[in-house]
Amino acid sequence: MRACLAIAALLGLLGSQAAAAHAFPEQTEPRVGAVIDHVPNQVRIWFDADLEPAFSTLRVLDAQGRQVNRDSGQVSAEHARLLEARLPPLAPGVYHVFWRVIARDGHATEGDYAFTVGR
């Protein structure tokens, strides 16, 4: 019985380490669901793990599904946990941010959120 409990505890520990290996957003700018009056000049997402720059992307689409950011986003040279993309001046409307990252350990995560530019 003790051996079974020890094995179960070890498997639980290994499973929690594997789950912690993925990179997940900690903060976004603009914030998720935000309605803002000023037009941002970039979208920034901070993650809880270092990102692999060659395989991490960020796209911002307008309501018609057109990509509005000029590049596919990039990991900041100064902060390995920051993914960012420059934006041109945006018209009022809803914008969708799509991100896909690979953590330095090779685990991929992806997601999306929206924000609204008012006025």
Topology at a glance:
Elements: H1 2-20, E1 25-29, E2 35-36, E3 42-47, E4 57-61, E5 74-75, E6 82-86, E7 93-102, E8 108-117
Produce a short descriptive summary.
With 119 residues, this protein is an alpha+beta fold. It contains one helix and eight strands, in the order H-E-E-E-E-E-E-E-E. Helices cover 16% and strands 38% of the residues.
Structure description:
This protein is of the alpha+beta class. It has a single domain (22-117), classed as Sandwich (Immunoglobulin-like). 16% of the residues lie in helices and 38% in strands. It has 1 helix and 8 strands; from the N terminus they run αββββββββ. It has one helix at 2-20, and strands at residues 25-29, 35-36, 42-47, 57-61, 74-75, 82-86, 93-102, 108-117. The strands form 2 sheets. The chain has a 4-stranded antiparallel sheet, with no helix packed on it. Strands 2-8-7-4 form a 4-stranded mixed sheet, with no helix packed on it. The radius of gyration is 18 Å and the shape is elongated. The chain starts with a helix and ends with a strand.
